[in-house]
Specification:
Shape: elongated
Largest sheet: 6 strands, mixed
Strand order of the largest sheet: 3-2-1-4-5-6
Number of strands: 6
CATH architecture of the largest domain: 2-Layer Sandwich
C-alpha cells in the first residue's frame, strides 16, 4: 500500500486509538471508505483518526462501536475515548481489560488491596476517594474508574460461559481497613460469597508464608481462548502487558506454587470470617 503510515500504539493515547481502529477495520477486510460508509464520516476523516492527526470524539467513537458491534461491551472505543479525555487509567490497562473480557481463565494475585474484580462498589469508591484527596486524580476520573470496574465485573458475569476466576490474596488485603468498618465488613462478606460461586477459587496467602510467597506486587494471568497466556503487572505509574512465553511461563509456574503453598479455599474463607468478626 502506497504511503501507508506505520503506527506506534505506544506513542500516545490518540495513536493507540488510531492503531486499534486500523487493526479492527483491517480484521474485517474493510477499507477506510467502507468504514466511513458505516459510520457516517469520510474516508479522509477515518485516515486522520487512524494516523493520530485528528483526535477522536465521543460521537465518532460511538459510531465506530456500532459499526464493529461493540455496544455494551467493556472494551468499547467510547471507553477508550474517555480514557484519552480524562486520563483515568494507567497506561497499558485498557489493553489488558480488552483481553480480560474474552479470557477463559483469570488468575489474580494482589497485595494490600482487594483486587478490582472482587471489589464492592463502596470499597472501590473509597479507594478512589483516597486518590482524589491526594490530588493524583480528579473526582470525575475517580467516578470513571469505579464505573469501569463495575462494567468489567458485569461483562464477565453476562458471558454465556463466565471465565474461571482464581484469586490468591495476600493477608494484607483482608486486614487493611478501607472505607470504614461498614464498608470493610460488606467487602469481606462479598469475598465469602465470591468463593461460593461455581466458577471461582479464592485463597488467602497468610503472613506466615514469609519468603515462600513468590510475588510482591499485583499480578494478573489471563488464559485466552486459544490457550495462550498473557501477564499483566503494574508499577506505581504504569501497567505492562507481557505476551512472550519465556517471560510468562515462569510467572505461571510461580503462581501454581503459590496456590500449592497457600491454605485451601475452605481454610481461607474461615480466615476471612475471623477477620470479619474483628472489623465490626
Amino acid at each position: 500500500m502506497v504511503n501507508r503510515k506505520e503506527l506506534n500504539p505506544d506513542g500516545s493515547p490518540e495513536e493507540a486509538f488510531g492503531a486499534r481502529l486500523r487493526s479492527s477495520r483491517e480484521s474485517k477486510g474493510w477499507t477506510q471508505d467502507d468504514l466511513a460508509l458505516r459510520t457516517g464520516y469520510s474516508g479522509r476523516h477515518i485516515s486522520a483518526i487512524e494516523t493520530g492527526r485528528k483526535p477522536p470524539t465521543r460521537r465518532f467513537s460511538i459510531s465506530v462501536d456500532v459499526a464493529f458491534g461493540l455496544e455494551g461491551s467493556v472494551d468499547t472505543f467510547e471507553r477508550q475515548w474517555r480514557e484519552i479525555r480524562h486520563g483515568a487509567l494507567l497506561e497499558g490497562f485498557p489493553e489488558y481489560v480488552g483481553h480480560e473480557a474474552r479470557a477463559a481463565e483469570v488468575r489474580i494475585f494482589e497485595v494490600g488491596v482487594i483486587p478490582g474484580l472482587l471489589q464492592t462498589r463502596e470499597y472501590a469508591a473509597a479507594i478512589e476517594a483516597g486518590h482524589v484527596k491526594r490530588g493524583t486524580i480528579t473526582a470525575e476520573q475517580a467516578a470513571e474508574r469505579v464505573d469501569l470496574l463495575i462494567e468489567r465485573q458485569a461483562a464477565l458475569s453476562r458471558r454465556p460461559l463466565p471465565p474461571l476466576v482464581i484469586a490468591v490474596l495476600d493477608e494484607s488485603c483482608i486486614r487493611r481497613l478501607v472505607g470504614g468498618p461498614g464498608v470493610m465488613d460488606a467487602q469481606l462478606n462479598h469475598l465469602i460469597q465470591f468463593a461460593d460461586q461455581s466458577n471461582t477459587s479464592l485463597q488467602v496467602a497468610p503472613f506466615s508464608m514469609g519468603e515462600r510467597r513468590p510475588f510482591n506486587r499485583l499480578l494478573h494471568l489471563l488464559t485466552l481462548a486459544d490457550r495462550a497466556v498473557v501477564a499483566y503487572v503494574e508499577s506505581q505509574t504504569q501497567g505492562y502487558l507481557e505476551r512472550e512465553i519465556t517471560s510468562v511461563l515462569p510467572l505461571l509456574r510461580a503462581y501454581h506454587q503459590l496456590q500449592t503453598e497457600a491454605p485451601s479455599q475452605a481454610e481461607s474463607v474461615a480466615i476471612i470470617g475471623q477477620v470479619r468478626k474483628g472489623s465490626l
